[in-house]
Amino acid sequence: MHAAVRGVIEAAEDSPAHVSILDTEASTEHLLVSTAKHAHAMFAVVEPYFTSLETGRRINLLARDLGIERVALIVNKVRSQEDLEAVDAFAEEEGLEVVGTVPYDDCFHEAERVSRAPLDFAPDAEAMIAIRRLAPRLLNARGT
Amino acid sequence: MKLAIAGKGGAGKTSITGTLARVFAQSGYQVLAVDNDMNPNLSLTVGIPAELMTELPVFGPEIVRKRDDGGYDLAMTLEEICAAYSLCAPDDITLLTANQPTQAGTG
Question: What is the pTM of this model?
């Protein structure tokens, strides 16, 4: 199964007009990254507390071992300035890139409750605004 | 550009991935979204109606063949894979969902 997913990502169009985006397996970290071998960039979604940031650090190491050009963190569920400072301190200490942060937002939970896409359910929610701002940054700086 | 989104369950990985796919598509990119999560909910977060989730087409190991050296090649072109297994999501996103063996095993 990993070979199938890996093959699809390898075959995906690589042109300025195309973006492919893989939602990797959430379970075993060492297997999840192998499906992403042919991705240009991997972003680890983490929460602003230590054990979650630690997961991000391990994903970063595994993805770099696979040869992925760019690995960075997306920090979700940020509630305060203190959260941001803790994340920045961790990232600096570990030499990790934080590509963006998304504030804690009930819209995700509420959208799920009514089985709708968050972007359709609450297009103007703070988290949606943050993700719109984040998206182009994921495409920047390939290989830098 | 080919992006992979990783993270532990509960961190918001799938919600963010689905929303990013929509944002890219609305910005004019042609988007291929691939769901390999054990709990495949990407369809929901990109905006496929929940009632279609039970009929979600899934791809599996049949799309690859083993080489003599033990590696794998795709047995079909990506176009053929998309024609057979993809769903068109809002904003013209092409959504591919990987079959999850653990789910099949529990059925």
Answer: 0.94
